[in-house]
Hints:
Radius of gyration: 18 Å
CATH superfamily of the largest domain: Response regulator
Shape: elongated
Strand order of the largest sheet: 2-1-3-4-5
Helix content: 40-55%
Number of helices: 8
Strand content: 15-25%
Amino acid sequence: MRLLIVEDEKRLAISLARGLTAEGFAVDVVHDGAEGLHRATDGAYDLVILDIMLPGMNGYRVCAALRAAGHDVPVLMLTAKDGEYDEAEGLDTGADDYLTKPFSYVVLVARVRALLRRRGGTGSPVVTVGALRMDTAARRLHLDGEEIALTAKEFAVLEQLALRAGQVVSKAEILEHVWDFAYDGDPNIVEVYVSTLRRKLGAAAIRTVRGAGYRLEAL
C-alpha cells in the first residue's frame, strides 16, 4: 500500500515515514499543501496523511480540493489544534478520520489500517483466498495452517494480489502501490518478488497472464 504524508514538521514527517515503511508501506513525503495536492491528485495513493497547518495551502483546502476533483482517496488529518469545531471542519471538508497531536504512533497505524480496510470493503484485517490466510494487521501469512515467513515487500506484493484475488493485477499497478515515488529502478523487480512468492507458496499460487499481469489463484 502506498501512502502520502503531507506534513511541514520535517522531523515528525521523517519519523512517521520511517515507521510506516518498516510496517511494509511505500511512503512519500512532502512538506507543503500545494505540493501535497499535486502529488495526491497525480499519484496512485491508497491513503493520505494530511496535516492541517501547512504553508501555502492548509489541509482543509487541500482536502476540499481533492474531493471537488472527484478523488476518494482516504484522508487522515493531523493537527495540533484541539477542538470539536476543528475536527468537524476537517470531516466536513471530506476527511475520513482525525488525530490530534501529540498522538500515539500505535493509534495512528491502527487508524491507517482501519481506513484501508474500509476502502477495501471489509472491516476485517484477515483476507482469505482458498487455503491462504493473510492477517494484514499482524502482517502474518498462513497456508494450510502453516505460517509462511515473508519480508515486508513480499507481503505488500502479495497483499495487492490477495485484495483482488481472481482478478488480473498489472505490474504497473503493483509498482505504484508497493514502491514509493522515488523508485526509478528496474520495473522487473515485480517479477523477482512474484518468483520468490511462488517458491514459498507453490508455483500454482500466482498465474502470469501474458501481456496483462498476475492473478492470485485459490489453492
